[in-house]
Amino acid sequence: MASGRRRQAPRSLGILLLAIVGMTCGGELSFTLEPSDIIAVQEQPLMLHCQVEGIPPITTQWRRNGALIVEDQNYVMFANGSLLIGHFQKTKSDGSSDEGDYECIAQNFFGLVLSRKARVQAATMADFHVQPCSVRAELGGVGRFQCQIHGLPEPVISWERDGQPVDTSDDRFTLLPTGVLQITGVCPEDSGMYCCVAHNSAGVKHSAGAQLTVSGSQSSVYKEPMILVGPENLTLTVHQTAILECVATGYPRPIVSWSRLDGRPIGVEGIQVLGTGNLMISDVRVQHSGVYVCAANKPGTRVRRTAQGRLVVQAPAEFVQPPQSIARPVGTTAIFTCLAQGEPVPQITWLKNGQILEPDGHVKLRNNNSTLTINGVTQDDEAIYQCIAENSAGSTQASARLTVLWADGLPGVPTGVRAEVLSPTSIQVSWNEPTQNTQDIIGYVLHIRKTADPVEMEYQEAVSKMTLQQVIGDLEPSTSYSFYVKAYTSRGASKASETAVESTLGEVPAPPALFTKVINSTVVQATWEPSAKMGQQEGFSLYYRKVPVPIFTGPLTFPRNVTQYNITQLDPSFVYEIKILAFNQHGEGNATLRFVSLKEAVEKSVLNTPCNCVKDEQNKSSTTGIIIGIHIGVTCIIFCVLFLMFSYRGRLMMCKTVQATRQAGRNPAAGVVLESSSSSQGALALNGPHRFSSDGNGGTHTAKSCTDSNEMERLFSGPSHFSHPPDTTHTIESSLVSCPLNETQMSTLPLDDFSLMEECDLQFRQHPAEGQQDED
């Protein structure tokens, strides 16, 4: 055993030195030149290049379609890694072919890497699948020919007329790379036989001929704009050239314009218009993808015709963040990250020493394979890992090496790992000391995870070297957990111990919250709320008792969806203790207690008998208030009416007394002008602020008194009053004259006199006429 360890020491030291050299050189094994796609010519030599750098010795090999290539007279491998195919043949006599996907393989002490796949195809030229057709065009119109042919590489198209090359320097002739020939402003000299010529490294081919006939004369009759040929849908790779064709006719000649359907500007860089309306985008990029709209506009109007085509630009995969070489001690975790972009989004594949890496227990791929995680690395995980990003536009690869650090003197594996459940939330894990190299142990690390969780959900707890056990708390009840232990020294960690699995106990429910409410002197309502802190509850048990009687009534059992109960037929002279607890399959939880006294409820019911006395008293008070309010209102109304009646009555008598006195005196110089009212009621009007003359007692009355009397007259006068006989006027006059002017005789005038006001009014109206007779 000792001699075995001694033989292992130089080897381990050598590995460590090589790892240090590789990490310092930074080029343990990588490609500086990879083979690229190529189109080969039949019976011609072909060279595929491959150059590698790294720590020697390095060996290179080639594979075609996954099979190793053996050197012979047709295949020669150079020291720098390149492969020469002496005579390329698409189809050999034995049925094999030199076409296929070629890969370069490089290998050294650290591992093996694969280059990107290079597709090798033979140059070919197929027959024309679209032949040009004869065209009849009007003078000044548009002529168009088209041909299509497949070939590798893409054939170059040219045109001939009557066996002579078409002069494309003439602005009227537009030759598109797609094989289309456009002739604008057709004239008789353009007539002839046109032929399409295709050529590439595989040869030259001529299409069938097509006749162009020019007829008629140039017309000046208005023609609606029309698009003869619109843009086609294209799918290209970045850096290629896009040709969007648009041929429009009409009279006057329509104006062709281009726009994007999404409203974004087309831009000017790399944009060119060919002929009268073809759009060419050189060096296309992903941002050029979109729907392009060709519009033919009639000059000076809004009349237009449109056609559209979609351009899709693909981008081969390229790395945003390639993986980086790392070194990790045994038992730790290694993580590689590989981020790539492209259009469409590239797919990522991982290789380990040239073989597809399949995830297993400790090897995980996450984030769409962009993250490679190796948990608990061992010596077997040391290799070169490659990230291959590939989409329909191309592929790329990057490699990184994982170095596993291993040193002599690492501790042995801890033994006897066992787990013992303590409670629903805690488990104790114990283990024995390793059997070798224990003197340099500085501690242990306990690895913990739920058995059902993935490895990356694992967490660790550090443990002192002085103890060989650890209690893990804050676990979930009724849950299975896995544990293993590693011993650590200053040089690294031991291998992982065997795994121990244990499940936590089930947990009884936490005490529910309890609330009580006294309904009356014999009923208490108990309401409870379950707690979510501990185990799930299956139901509730309710107990209650008189204090200090030791025996509880109950249990009253309820399902978990019931949270309220009314306890009835209680004795109001006692204090009651109520308790509630939750239970499940693991047992009953702790109870919640409440004490309830019914004495206060009894006292309240005695002092405040629940009768309608207050309500009746309130009803009585309300009725009494309403009646009193009505009486007060009626009384106020009566007083107001009486006041108005007597007030107007006094004013009327005063006014009529003054009028009677003036009539008796017959004094025209009194300065009062009386005018007959135009009103049908015969009311009087006083013009100006004139005063009445004083009587013998010196009493004076203003015109306001008569104005008030007019208001009274309007209130109590009527058309029927004018029919009274004249003698009643003299009666009222004699009564008025007998009254002193300085007194108000409110009680001396009977109520029947109110019907005589109009007669008095008639008498007053006669005074101006008498005065006029006197003047005459």
UniProtKB/TrEMBL annotation:
<keyword id="KW-0677">Repeat</keyword>
<feature type="domain" description="Fibronectin type-III">
    <location>
        <begin position="413"/>
        <end position="507"/>
    </location>
</feature>
<keyword id="KW-0812">Transmembrane</keyword>
<feature type="signal peptide">
    <location>
        <begin position="1"/>
        <end position="26"/>
    </location>
</feature>
<dbReference type="Pfam" id="PF00041">
    <property type="entry name" value="fn3"/>
</dbReference>
<feature type="domain" description="Ig-like">
    <location>
        <begin position="126"/>
        <end position="215"/>
    </location>
</feature>
<feature type="domain" description="Ig-like">
    <location>
        <begin position="10"/>
        <end position="121"/>
    </location>
</feature>
<keyword id="KW-0325">Glycoprotein</keyword>
<comment type="similarity">
    <text>Belongs to the immunoglobulin superfamily. DCC family.</text>
</comment>
<protein>
    <recommendedName>
        <fullName>Immunoglobulin superfamily DCC subclass member 3</fullName>
    </recommendedName>
</protein>
<keyword id="KW-0732">Signal</keyword>
<keyword id="KW-1015">Disulfide bond</keyword>
<keyword id="KW-1133">Transmembrane helix</keyword>
<dbReference type="InterPro" id="IPR036116">
    <property type="entry name" value="FN3_sf"/>
</dbReference>
<dbReference type="Pfam" id="PF07679">
    <property type="entry name" value="I-set"/>
</dbReference>
<keyword id="KW-0472">Membrane</keyword>
<dbReference type="InterPro" id="IPR007110">
    <property type="entry name" value="Ig-like_dom"/>
</dbReference>
<dbReference type="InterPro" id="IPR013098">
    <property type="entry name" value="Ig_I-set"/>
</dbReference>
<dbReference type="InterPro" id="IPR036179">
    <property type="entry name" value="Ig-like_dom_sf"/>
</dbReference>
<dbReference type="InterPro" id="IPR003599">
    <property type="entry name" value="Ig_sub"/>
</dbReference>
<dbReference type="Pfam" id="PF13927">
    <property type="entry name" value="Ig_3"/>
</dbReference>
<feature type="transmembrane region" description="Helical">
    <location>
        <begin position="625"/>
        <end position="646"/>
    </location>
</feature>
<feature type="domain" description="Ig-like">
    <location>
        <begin position="316"/>
        <end position="403"/>
    </location>
</feature>
<dbReference type="InterPro" id="IPR003598">
    <property type="entry name" value="Ig_sub2"/>
</dbReference>
<dbReference type="InterPro" id="IPR003961">
    <property type="entry name" value="FN3_dom"/>
</dbReference>
<feature type="domain" description="Fibronectin type-III">
    <location>
        <begin position="508"/>
        <end position="604"/>
    </location>
</feature>
<dbReference type="InterPro" id="IPR013783">
    <property type="entry name" value="Ig-like_fold"/>
</dbReference>
<dbReference type="GO" id="GO:0016020">
    <property type="term" value="C:membrane"/>
</dbReference>
<feature type="domain" description="Ig-like">
    <location>
        <begin position="225"/>
        <end position="308"/>
    </location>
</feature>
<dbReference type="GO" id="GO:0098609">
    <property type="term" value="P:cell-cell adhesion"/>
</dbReference>
<keyword id="KW-0393">Immunoglobulin domain</keyword>
